[in-house]
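Milestone 3.1: sequence recovery, worked example.
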């Protein structure tokens, strides 16, 4: 059975989406679903491409018990719309960028992360870049809730 691809997308791919990818990947592993689901993350913008995850995001993830592995930021490409079934945007700007970028034959789902989360539905995962350490903690907590809810939905939809 083909593995289900989930791509987390934010503006720079150095704060929110690498954190979402790392937390989601950890939840996948804990559930024994590594062969069924895979995840990656990317940016809509190119200006941080090639950069490592923001240390403040790494630290905030660490405080929740997750590890953002060393990786380099990258911008989304056309191929991502073929390789990933679920494109998960951190905020409305990213969502609109993805919707505009998607080729007409894209058959996957482009959605805001919090849409999967009944008690946070429709909220943006706000950009923490100019915020404090507390802002990063709030951001990571919302991401953790969102990716957990996303995984629950995937398990139901795909009978994982
Ligand atoms: P991200 O955070 O989209 O969560 O990776 C940001 C990183 C950089 C900037 C904005 C958001 N920036 O304006 O440089």
């Amino acid at each position: 059975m083909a593995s289900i691809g989930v791509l987390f997308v934010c503006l720079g791919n150095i704060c929110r989406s690498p954190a979402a990818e790392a937390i989601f990947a950890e939840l996948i592993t804990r559930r024994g679903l590594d062969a069924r689901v895979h995840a990656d993350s990317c940016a809509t913008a190119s200006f941080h491409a090639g950069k490592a995850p923001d240390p403040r995001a790494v630290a905030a993830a660490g405080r929740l018990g997750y590890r953002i592995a060393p990786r380099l930021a990258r911008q989304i490409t056309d191929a991502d719309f073929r390789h990933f079934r679920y494109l998960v945007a951190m905020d409305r700007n990213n969502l609109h960028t993805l919707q505009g970028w998607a080729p007409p034959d894209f058959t996957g789902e482009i959605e805001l992360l919090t849409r999967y989360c009944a008690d946070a539905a429709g909220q943006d995962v706000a950009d923490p870049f100019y915020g404090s350490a507390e802002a990063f903690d709030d951001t990571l907590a919302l991401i953790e809730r969102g990716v957990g809810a996303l995984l629950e939905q995937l398990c139901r939809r795909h009978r994982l």
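The mean pLDDT is 97. The radius of gyration is 14 Å.
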